[in-house]
Design goal:
Keywords: Membrane, Transmembrane, Transmembrane helix. This protein is 64% helix and 6% strand. It has a 3-stranded antiparallel β-sheet. A two-stranded antiparallel ribbon has the order 3-4.
């Protein structure tokens, strides 16, 4: 269940709703109870409560496949609640708390061993989280600051060469390298932090 598109939250809800609509054996009490527990899971803001209710329902015994699928559906819906929607309509993580909760959700879904489409969803979510944690270099806001670094890198070694001083040249190279390293550290951001600075909305809005 890899969901992409111009309105990912809507597409995800449709996929999860279709999963919940699959037939359940009326004689399977656990599956019937679990489906009832997630009846309103696709209503924005209610997934967390459905997850906790299902965990209580399924605690203490080995649940049937349908019940595990229902918990996985609730977890997938919860993952959308803790993310934001960017200007392209995609769900993105925008803070450390959301990153940690989504990673825990994906792992819990995999531990449930649900239907293949839900397993695919969990793997896709983990891939996205890995990308969200990658470092990105962000262009400095201050043009003068960037100019100082550039001049230091270019001018100091040149001055050392012009005056014939190996010490000045070596010092210039060292200072320039330190400035470049410092500028790189100062202007790198995690991908989720870069996404957080973009225009965002919450799912369902």
């Amino acid at each position: 269940m890899v969901v992409n598109g111009s309105d990912e939250p809507t597409a995800l809800r449709a996929r999860l709703a279709a999963h919940l609509a699959r037939p359940v054996d009326p004689a399977d009490d656990a599956a019937m109870r679990s489906r009832a527990a997630v009846a309103d899971v696709l209503v924005e803001g209610r997934a967390a409560a459905a997850v906790e209710r299902l965990r209580r329902e399924l605690r203490g015994y080995h649940p049937p496949p349908a019940a595990r699928d229902h918990l996985a559906v609730a977890l997938a819906a919860r993952s959308a609640e803790v993310r934001a929607v960017d200007e392209d309509g995609a769900l993105v993580v925008v803070d450390r708390a959301g990153l940690a909760e989504c990673r825990a959700i994906a792992r819990e879904i995999l531990d449930l061993r649900p239907a293949p489409d839900l397993v695919d969803f969990a793997h896709d979510l983990l891939d996205r989280l890995d990308r969200a944690e990658r470092w990105r270099w962000v262009a400095p806001d201050s043009v003068p600051g960037a100019a100082v670094v550039a001049l230091a890198v270019l001018v100091l070694p040149f001055v050392g060469g012009a005056v014939g001083s190996a010490a000045v040249t070596a010092g210039g190279v060292a200072v320039g390298a330190a400035l470049v390293f410092g500028a790189t550290l100062a202007h790198r951001r995690r991908q989720w932090a870069v996404d957080a600075a973009r225009p965002l909305r919450r799912p369902g809005r």
